[in-house]
Amino acid sequence: MQNSAEITIQKQAHTTAELTTNLILERTGLGSTLAKNTVPASTTATTAGSTTAKSAHRDPVDRLEKHILDYIHHCTQHVKKVAETRVQLAKAQMAEFKALEDFEQIATPSQWNIHVLLKPKIKVWSTKNKNYRTVLKRIEYDLPPKFISNIEFKFKLDESILSQDELQALYNQMSKMTKDFRTQAMGLYMQSLGREHELLTNEIKRIIDGFPNENDDGFDAEAGCAAFKQYHELREKRFNLETDQSIYFLDAQRITGRGFLAPAIINQANIKLTEQEHQLLRLGPRFIFDDPKTASPRRTTELATLKRKIETRFFEKKVSPGRPVEQFIAELDVLLQNLHNIPSTKKQIQFNKTQTNKSFDTLSSIIQSSQPSQSQVIIRPRKKKNYGRIVKRLKYKIHLANTILRKTDKSKVFHLGKVDHYQKKSEEYMDNTKAYQCLGTIDPLPDLIQRTNKYLLDLRLAKWIAQKQYEQLSVKPNEVELAHLYYLPKAHKPGTPLRPIISGLKHPTIKISKFLDDLLRPLFDQMALDSTVTSGFELIKKLQEWSTVNMCQDTLFCTIDVTDLYTMVPQIEGVLSLRKMLDQLKLKQVGKLKVETIIRLSRFVMTNNYFSYNGQFYHQVRGGAMGSPLTLTISNCYMYFFERQIVNQIRNSGGLYFRYIDDIFITINWPARHLLKQIERWNKFDENIKLSANIGSIVNFLDLNME
């Protein structure tokens, strides 16, 4: 029998392990695995045997151990891959050596002479084969060699003489010339390597096909010919494994969303960058450098937040956190202090440097002593870049040049633009859309918090929502902040227009927005399955199916952009499109919420978008905030009912129509003039929806270039 103290300790250990598991799963992205595999633990009575109780409390610890091991396995896949390749390579070398010995014993003199003459050609072929396969993989991964990617055609223009539009047009021409050169250079490079590889392969094949297999001078040539061909196949297999091993490391350099067709950075502000600064920006927005000086001061705040989250989960289970949580946080604090410890005096810095050099020299001597004497290479420690100093210098330079650094809207590379350009474009956007009302310097946040909680309480008292939903959606004043507006440059479009993003991750209505979006988005995806795509890959499959029957000489590609969709969708009509969707699906409630409740909450979210920009506060009176999850679903619903007539017209004419949010793709066998006339007619369907089209035999859509 267990006493009350033992039961309390086991309960605390169980809860600590469970909470730590959940936190690690949240950080590592293994939550889906847990959702599939976890079975709810049954409550253990205090009178149960000690073995049963211990196994019940052990379960979260086992799950924690399992998921940590899964995470380690995921992070060390490349090590496993390299080790497996080395084992395969060693086996291939052994088999090749044995085949060579067998061939040497039975080869005729003429066969051996041909083998000796062919050996240097095979060595050259292995190099050419490796180069050719590497360049093909580089094209696949969009990783051009440095002698191509480093070339950028750009020169300084006098901004005091030329107008902004002229400057932009000239800079766009420079970017296009750079893009065209890189494309042509990469094509020529691949063509030359391919030709070298082809000629050498044909020559070697011709020699092997003519390998002597007729008996001469009493030697059995047929056996020697068969042995040589087996040896050659094994040799070729080894070369291919070596090539695979060298190509594998290109994966580590791969950066999604960037290629040789686009510049690595877009410097429209024309700031003079040093080579180090240029290389840093080329690494892209995803790059994070290790900086203990920055991380260390955040330790206290991060640990306090972590402790508060764990204690909150304890209190939800009606258990006092006790000492285990304090001990866990204290041990974590010590661990982080050791990781972030930076020597403060020159003596400490010199001591650490000496110790590091000694360790490196020892390791280097061990590695070198394990290598064959003919292949010994002096290993030197790679000089570590001082990214902190480069970033600090770059920040100062950007501030001094009155410039804004942003990532681009589509290609996700860094864009340097002038502050004046951003302000001018922002004013034009606000004037054109008439979607924002300036409130001056009066902060609307306190009133919005009060109105949100009151609205939810009224719904709860009227029994429109349950108590659990009220607690889930209500706002805590210390956990919210007002949204803020910023812009992403659309560098792929003429004049570099801006896409407004209202970042409201802690906005008072964000919980309601996400809650409704989780309910409604799957319903929209189900309803619009036949007219929407989720990626360029999905569109390619649909287009291939259509083209086998319908493609002809008159086929046109047409891409249509819906101008400022999120901002131009009317708030009331947008919410009513949700009701229209639910009526079409014949649903009276979703997730235990009545349709009327969903409509009321959606209207509250859409009409209460507030944000700050340049020291002023604004209220969005038209459309929805682009950073709010519900805005996407409402915009999609509104567009779905707008496009019904267009979809039917295109498909009745044997065409193909698909949409991805505000981008539309059409292919049809119509004359271009007729298609333009139809687009003009479609533009009159709704004064809020403006369509701008691009028609031709070559178009860009999402991440695709179709011809």
Architecture overview:
- With 707 residues, this protein is an alpha+beta fold.
- The protein folds into three domains: 66-256, no CATH class; 265-338 and 385-431, no CATH class; 434-706, no CATH class.
- 61% of the residues lie in helices and 10% in strands.
- A five-stranded mixed beta sheet has the order 4-11-10-5-6, covered by helices on one side. A four-stranded antiparallel beta sheet has the order 12-13-7-14, with helices on both faces.
- Helix 5 packs antiparallel against helix 7 (164-209).
- The longest helix has 46 residues, at 164-209.
- The model is unreliable at 27-54, 254-262 and 370-381 (pLDDT under 50).
Quick take:
With 707 residues, this protein is an alpha+beta fold. The chain has three domains: 66-256, no CATH class; 265-338 and 385-431, no CATH class; 434-706, no CATH class. It starts with a helix and ends with a strand.
Keywords:
alpha+beta, 707 residues, five-stranded mixed β-sheet
Name the structural class: alpha+beta
In angstroms, what is the radius of gyration?
33 Å
The spatial strand order of the largest sheet comes to: 4-11-10-5-6
Total of DSSP H or I helical runs spanning 4+ residues: 25
Number of structural domains:
3
How much of the sequence lies in strands comes to: 5-15%
Number of strands: 16
Instruction: Indicate the overall shape.
Output: globular
Q: Give the biggest sheet.
A: 5 strands, mixed
Unreliably modeled segments: 27-54, 254-262, 370-381
Summarize the helices and strands and which ones pair or pack:
Layout: H1 4-28, H2 31-37, H3 50-75, H4 77-106, H5 109-141, H6 146-149, H7 164-209, H8 221-248, H9 250-253, E1 265-267, H10 275-282, H11 292-316, H12 322-340, H13 346-369, H14 387-400, E2 403-407, E3 414-418, H15 419-433, E4 436-440, H16 445-461, H17 467-473, E5 483-489, E6 498-503, H18 510-527, H19 536-550, E7 556-562, H20 565-568, H21 571-584, E8 589-590, E9 593-594, H22 595-606, E10 610-613, E11 616-620, H23 629-642, H24 644-652, E12 656-660, E13 663-668, H25 672-682, E14 691-696, E15 699-701, E16 704-706
Parallel strand pairs: 1-3, 5-10
Antiparallel strand pairs: 2-3, 4-11, 5-6, 7-13, 7-14, 8-9, 10-11, 12-13, 15-16
Helix pairs in contact: 1-3, 4-8, 5-7, 5-8, 11-12, 18-22, 18-23, 21-22, 21-23
Domain Reverse transcriptase: 469-707
Organism: Rotaria magnacalcarata
Protein name: Reverse transcriptase domain-containing protein
